[in-house]
């Protein structure tokens, strides 16, 4: 039903090898700015009554009667992605990963002035989860359903779709959903332990009740909430969530019953048996294994230390597979990005990179290395890998595209997202009907009227290709669980290790009111380069980075073509001479270069960026011809 456009890679093999070999050589990024934006995205995903402090001004109140038909208040929470459904399993996982990000890197967030916003993002989710758990053995796991929602293209504020609420209980169990929600509340209780102890205790009570419910009444949630099967089916079952919940409850309480659960059930529930190559909202084993490894390195294993070491062996298998040093490695694109699947691949990139980052810090604090099939590996290798993935996301990739909306100059502008693609209700309050939204807004080829700042979209295909088109949902749809681990990554990369032992008990500082001014993206070193610029079309070249490989110097140049006219530039032809390496972002035709396959014109004021790498001074770029329309 929905179209996916695939582009043809233009990158020659030897340069792809260069990109993989030197992922850290690209230009530095403003991780602090990216962190600010990535947290802001969650405010665009809010459901319910929006607070006075709401910073995403184009959004308004929505879903104000959620749960009413079932006699329960389910107003609030988050929409998961580009739709208007509240799916409980990915929402809970989002909150777990945001909380873990804060637990590990709250100090770095505080230094950046973003800890308060991050904690508000967690609390917006946990406030909803508390409402969704009105009884120890009842949990509401979905509001709305994907089938009716996907039939419509409406702003959240205009929704006319079914808002039925779906629950699990002893007769209709859902151990995976209850277990993940228990993990989210336990992790969040650590976040608020110091700043809001009463709220922390409330979360912990819910977490303990939900874990008991999940363990006592076992079953897959999508067998009870069958409308979720098409969208968030629990393929991995519930065993991983039971271990995940127990691990977070042990971290939050130090109660030995949860350590015993991990020790006694590691084999039967798969924690010590499964060697994983993915981590995400469905499959939690790698996360469990890394978190349990932390407990072991903290000296908290006790009589179960030998079992916990088996968890750690599986954790290191996963991380070695990310580095390409395992007996079974995770696929990477030619540009070096982890690649798991074509639909929203970025979720696996950020979650795996987060595990690599925290494990790197755990090893550093413990003074240890990691054991891979290819040999001993230092903690720095893990951190370097994670940094390479984040830098790819932010623009250091063959397309020179930032996959975070609003970061850099070249980012997706036709996001598969109902709210951002339809004019704000505050600008035009005219009702947008269910099917009318498709006709008027979904099919529209222009840029989104509302900037979905900070959203991390699904990303490129297995060959680094990407089509910025609204109907290309596999690549242009964002999701909350893409961003949740990313905030921890960005805080760590922007703030450094902080000079403290990552294995000490977690203490999240109380957030401070911070007045911050927007940061601009870092300005690369400007290098004048031969360029022929017309009155209507301007060309500017910059040297963004240099490195040495095998005694030879390589340079990466970014070239920006700007339409300075009041009309649209079409049929652009550029002449490029003295180019001795591969180039991305242009299509070659004969002796000249034109627009890439994903672009056919430049509107007034718009820019086109292309990059090339070679071992010489800048190439000579000139405008051969173009037409104005």
Pick out its properties.
629 residues, alpha+beta, four-stranded antiparallel beta sheet, 38% helix
Can you offer a commentary on this structure?
The chain has 629 residues and is of the alpha+beta class. It has 19 helices and 15 strands. It has helices at 13-21, 31-44, 88-111, 115-131, 146-151, 175-191, 197-216, 221-224, 229-232, 239-253, 256-265, 285-297, 305-323, 346-366, 379-394, 418-421, 436-442, 473-476, 480-495, and strands spanning 86-87, 139-143, 165-168, 370-372, 375-377, 531-532, 537-549, 552-563, 569-577, 583-584, 587-589, 592-594, 601-602, 607-614, 620-628. Helix 14 (346-366) runs antiparallel to helix 15 (379-394). The longest helix is centred in the first third of the chain and has 24 residues, at 88-111. Mean pLDDT is 89; it is low at 1-27 and 514-530.
Concise structural overview:
With 629 residues, the chain is an alpha+beta fold. It is 38% helix and 13% strand. The strands form 5 sheets. A 4-stranded mixed β-sheet has the order 6-15-9-13, with no helix packed on it.
């Amino acid at each position: 039903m929905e179209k996916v456009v695939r582009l043809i890679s233009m990158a020659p093999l030897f340069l792809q090898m260069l990109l993989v070999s030197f992922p850290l050589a690209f230009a530095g990024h403003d991780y602090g700015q990216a962190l600010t934006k990535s947290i802001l995205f969650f405010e665009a995903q809010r459901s319910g009554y929006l607070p006075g402090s709401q910073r995403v001004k184009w959004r308004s109140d929505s879903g104000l009667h959620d749960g009413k038909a079932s006699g329960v208040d389910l107003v609030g929470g988050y929409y998961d992605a580009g739709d208007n459904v509240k799916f409980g399993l990915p929402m809970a996982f989002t909150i777990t990963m945001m909380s873990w990000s804060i637990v590990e890197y709250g100090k770095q967030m505080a230094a950046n002035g973003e800890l308060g916003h991050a904690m508000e993002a967690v609390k917006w989710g946990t406030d909803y989860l508390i409402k969704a758990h009105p009884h120890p053995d009842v949990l509401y796991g979905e509001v709305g359903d994907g089938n009716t929602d996907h039939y419509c293209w409406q702003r959240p504020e205009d929704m006319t779709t079914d808002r039925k609420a779906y629950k699990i209980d002893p007769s209709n169990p859902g151990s995976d959903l209850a277990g993940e929600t228990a993990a989210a509340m336990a992790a969040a209780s650590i976040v608020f332990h110091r700043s809001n102890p009463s709220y922390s205790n409330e979360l912990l009570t819910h977490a303990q009740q939900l874990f008991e419910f999940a363990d006592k009444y076992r079953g897959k949630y999508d067998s009870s909430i069958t409308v979720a099967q098409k969208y968030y089916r629990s393929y991995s079952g519930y065993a991983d969530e039971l271990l995940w919940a127990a691990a977070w409850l042990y971290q939050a309480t130090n109660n030995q019953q949860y350590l015993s659960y991990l020790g006694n059930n590691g084999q039967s529930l798969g924690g010590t048996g499964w060697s994983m190559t993915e981590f995400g909202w469905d499959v939690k084993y790698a996360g469990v294994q890394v978190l349990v490894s932390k407990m072991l390195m903290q000296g908290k294993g006790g009589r179960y230390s030998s079992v916990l070491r088996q968890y750690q062996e599986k954790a290191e298998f996963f991380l070695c597979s990310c580095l390409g040093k395992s007996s079974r490695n995770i696929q990477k694109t030619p540009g070096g990005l982890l690649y798991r699947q074509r639909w929203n691949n970025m979720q696996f990139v950020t979650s795996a990179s987060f595990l690599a980052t925290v494990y790197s810090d755990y090893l550093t604090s413990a003074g240890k290395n990691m054991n891979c099939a290819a040999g001993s590996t230092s903690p720095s290798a893990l951190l370097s890998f994670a940094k390479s993935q984040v830098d790819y996301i932010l623009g250091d990739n063959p397309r020179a595209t930032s996959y975070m909306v609003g970061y850099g100059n070249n980012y997706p502008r036709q996001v598969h997202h109902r709210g951002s693609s339809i004019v704000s209700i505050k600008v035009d309050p005219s009702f947008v009907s269910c099917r009318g939204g498709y006709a008027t807004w979904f099919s529209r080829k222009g840029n989104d009227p509302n900037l979905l700042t900070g959203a991390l979209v699904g990303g490129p295909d297995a060959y680094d290709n990407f089509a910025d088109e609204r109907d290309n949902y596999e690549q242009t749809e964002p999701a909350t669980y893409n961003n949740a681990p990313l905030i921890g990554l960005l805080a760590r990369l922007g703030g450094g290790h902080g000079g403290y032992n990552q294995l000490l008990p977690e203490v999240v500082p109380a957030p401070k009111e911070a007045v911050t001014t927007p940061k601009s993206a870092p300005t690369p070193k400007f290098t004048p380069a031969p360029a022929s610029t017309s009155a209507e079309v301007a060309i500017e070249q910059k040297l963004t980075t240099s490195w040495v490989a095998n005694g030879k110097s390589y340079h990466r140049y970014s070239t920006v073509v700007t339409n300075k006219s009041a009309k649209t530039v079409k049929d652009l032809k550029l002449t490029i001479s003295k180019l001795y390496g591969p180039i991305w972002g242009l299509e070659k035709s004969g002796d000249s270069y034109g627009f890439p396959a994903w672009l056919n014109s430049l509107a007034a004021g718009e820019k086109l960026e292309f990059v090339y790498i070679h071992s010489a001074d800048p190439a000579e770029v000139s405008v051969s011809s173009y037409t104005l329309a």
